[in-house]
Write a structure and sequence with these properties.
Elements lengths: L5 H10 L7 H14 L6 H37 L6 H32 L17 H7 L2 H25 L12 H23 L3 H27 L3 H28 L3 H11 L12 H20 L3 H4 L28 H16 L13
Amino acid sequence: MKSFTLREYCTFVLFFPQLIAGPIVHYREMMPQFAAASCRFEAENVTVGLTLLVFGLFKKVVLADHMARYVTPIYEHSAAGGSTSLAMAWLAAIGFTLQIYFDFSGYTDMALGLARLVGIRLPPNFNSPLQASNIIDYWLRWHMTLTRFLTAYIYNPLALTLTRRRLARGKPAFGGRHTTAGAFVSLLMFPMMLTMFISGLWHGAGYGYVVWGVLHGVFLTINHGWRVIAARLWRDRVRYERVMRPVGWAVTFVAVTTAMIFFRATTMASAMDLVRGIAGLNGAVLPPGTGREMAGALAWGVPLLAIALLCPNTLQILARYEPALGVRPQPNARLLGGILEWQASLPWAVAVSAVAGLAVISMHGASEFLYWQF
């Protein structure tokens, strides 16, 4: 096996720092837990596990499934050949984003809770992705285990191979403000697009999933390209963060919600109809008789959006007890003076019991399972 030169090693480490957070690290940290598990009742594991399980169930059967009641009819109408107006198309895009957000977050919490009941801490997989201010940060928060897998086993090996070949030909590598267009295209754009294309296929063998993956590859490439350009043009980092953080959040939110249309729509024709609706090409007038449904969707969707954007997530609430592998309280970070920080107390027991009761009551209806095909 050919050994690395110092130049190759430095280029790889600087360009791919996420390798140190790859899946192999979590594998090495998780395996000793199975050997050390006592299989005995431990109050902390049971209480933390049950709390995670209850929070996850509530997110799924109350928040996500209730949002689906307003979202699913729009996609069905579009799939049947209907023309989707501006407001309804945006409701479909943002509504499904919120649905899958709480659905996926709920399943993750339930998995973490079930493992914690027997004393196992699984790696974190979901960390408030809708709060991300750029698409790179979004993918560091959304489906974190998949991101690490794709990075470690597809993106990194491919980019490293291309980097070594490029250096062997005497061409400059990727890195810093003096990155050339050729290095950017061959060492970042190509492996990024291929990785996200594979990510789309992993979710399902359908055109919509492929388009969704390719779109995110384009978004990630643009984000990386902007970072190279911004480093040259905008030297004042404090001012840059002050201006670009809100702008970046808005652009990321629109990009993510728009791409979710291709993830959810059953046909490409339906997806394109909804995209035209988002752009206002199908008109802005609400269809007759949909005013009440729109009002109900807003009354439900706006609070969900506020929860996703403004509230601490489950891992932050239980951070004192390490609900997931490596998740611990941030220094000097208190959630409303400690009020929202979970602890084994009577008030929290009553609150979690109430949440559990609402979740159980809501389980009598139909529950949409989003992951049946991947």
